[in-house]
Amino acid sequence: MELEPTGERYLPSCMKGQIKYEHLHRYALSMELSRDKQVLDIASGEGYGSASLSKFARSVVGVDIDSKSVEYANQKYGDRPNLEFVVGACEAIPLPSQSVDIVTSFETIEHHDKHEQMMQEIKRVLKPGGMLVISSPNRLTYSDLPEYSNPFHVKELYDYQFISLLNRHFKHVKIYGQRLATGSFIFPLKEASQPSFNAYTFNDSEVNPKVCSLEEPIYFIALCSDEVTNVQPAIDSIYIDKPDDLFKENQIALAESQSQLHQTKALLSQYQSQLHQTEVILMQCQSQLQNTESVLEQSQSQLQHTEAVLEQSQSQLHETQAELEQSQSQLHETQAELEQSQSQLHETQAELEQSQSQLQHTEAVLEESQSQLQHTEVVLEESQSQLHETQAVLEESQSQLQHTEVVLEQSQSQLHETQTELEQSQSQLHETQTELEQSQSQQAQTEAELAQTQIKLKQSQSQQARTDGKLAQAKAQLQETDAVLEQSQSQLHQTQEVLERLLFKQNLAATQTEGQHPMQYNLLLWEAWYAYGNGDMAGVAHYLQQSLKCTHLSRTETVVNWLESFAKLSSEKGYEFDSYSLTNSVEWKQLMRSVTTIRTVVAS
C-alpha cells in the first residue's frame, strides 16, 4: 500500500529537493526538544516525522484527519511500541486534557481557517508549562508569488497575524525563520559523533563570528510555552542531506541553462536572418503601399469628378422638375380652357342647327321677294362652319335674323335695312373668325408647348435614369475604394508596428554598452510601452512582469526606470505620457503588489 502523491502532503519515498530539506529540518530540530517527553504530532501525514521523534521521546501520538494516511502510518511504523497514529482534527484532538508535554504542528495551520479552535485544543491537551513547536508559511514570500501558489492552502498568515495568534494563547513566543540558502560548509571528512561547528558572517566591513539574521523567510517556526525556560533553547541549525545535494542540482540546472543559451544564440542567428527577410518584405510592402496610395489618389480624383457630375445632374434635375411643374400647371389651365371651349362649341352647334332651320324658312319667303337674299343665304351657309366656335356672334346673328323675319313678313321695303344689318353681321362674323383663328393658334401653340414639355420630360427621365446609374456606379466604386483604403491602412499600421519594433531592436543593438540594462529587458519594456499606447493595460502588466526576470535593479529602481522609460519613449514619438492614469489603473496596482513581493524576495 502506497499513498498517492497529490502534493497536499510530503512523501519521503517520492519527493526530493527543497521540500525534503524544509520538512525534515523541522523534525530534526524538534528531536532534542522531545527527549523523554510525551509528544503529540498534529497532521502527522505519512508518519515519517512522528517516527523520527519516537527515537528520543517517551511516547508519540500522530493525529491526522485523513484515515488512509493514518492506516498507512500504522502499517509502516506500527512496530514501535512508543508510537501510535489516530484519526482526528486539529480543532477536535482525540486526546485527554493535559496529557502531553510537547505538541508539534508543521505545515498544518494554513490548511484550514479554524485557527482559534486549534489553539484552544492545543492548550487543552498540553500539560501546564508544556511547549508548542509550530510552523507556518510566510504569506508575503510564499503565496503572494505565483511560483509558490499552493491550491491546498485555505488561509495563510502574514508574520504579524501569526505572532498575534500565538501571543493570544501563550505567555512566551519565540519566532524563527526558515528558508534555503547557499553557503560554504567546512566539516570533517568523516561523520562526527558530536555536532560542533562555528558560524560566521560578513558584516560591518569585516568577518564576525555570529549567525546572520534571516530576512523574509519562506516559513515561520515558533516555540510557544507559558514557561520561559522552555523557549530559551536555541534551535539555530542546518540540515544537509548527503544523497540530495541542492548545489549539484543547481550545477545541473546551470549546465542546462548554458545549453539553452547556445540554442538561444542559434535561434538569434536564425531570427536575424528572418529579420533580413522581413526587411526585404517590408520594402516590398512599402512599394505596394505607394502603389496603393497612387490608386487611392486616382480613386479620390475620380470620386471628386463623379461628385461634381452628380451635383450638376442634380441641379439640372431640379430645374427640369421646376419646368415640368410649371408646364403641368399650364397644361391643366389649357385643358380647363379647352373643356370650356368645347362645351361652348356644343351649345353653339345646337343653336346653329336651330338657326339653320329658321333660315330655311326665311329663304322660302325671300325667294319670292328678294334676289339679294339668296346671296345672303350663300354667305350665311359659308359662315355656318365658322359659327361653331363663337357663341356671342351667333346670338347676335339670331337676334338679327328674327328681326329680319319680322321685317320680311311686314314689308319688302325694309330689305335695304336687312342688307345693312347683314353687312354688319358679316363684319362681326369676320371679327369672330379672327378671334377663332387666334384661339386656334393659341391652342396649337399650347399643344406644341405641351409636346415639347413631354419631350423634355422624357429627356429628363432618361437623363435621371443615366444619372442614377452613374450615381450607383460611383457609390460602388466609393465602397470599393473605402475597402481598399481600410485594408491599406491596416497593412500600413501592421507594417509600421513591425518597422518600429525592428528599428528599436537595431538601435538598441547598436547603442548597447556594457553595464546597461540587458537587451531582453529593454525589448520587453518597449513592448509594454507599445501596449500602453494601444490601451492594452493587460499587455502592459504582462510585459513588465516578464522584464523583472531580466534586471538586477531593486524594486524601487525598477519601477522608477519603467516610468522614466515610458516618458522618454512617449516624448520621442511626440506623445503625451499620463503617468497618473497609468499608476492608478487596476492592472498597475496589481502589478505593484506583485513587484513588491518579488523584489523583496530577490533582495533578501
What can you tell me about this protein's structure?
The protein has 604 residues and is of the alpha/beta class. Helix content is 62%, strand content 9%. It has helices at 18-31, 48-53, 67-77, 115-125, 139-142, 159-167, 246-369, 372-384, 391-410, 415-511, 519-533, 537-547, 555-572, 579-583, 586-603; strands at residues 38-42, 59-64, 83-87, 100-105, 126-137, 172-178, 201-203, 206-208, 219-225. Strands 3-2-1-4-5-9-6 form a seven-stranded mixed beta sheet, sandwiched between helices. Strands 7-8 form a two-stranded antiparallel ribbon. Strand 4 (100-105), helix 4 (115-125) and strand 5 form a beta-alpha-beta unit. Residues 599-604 have low confidence and may be disordered.
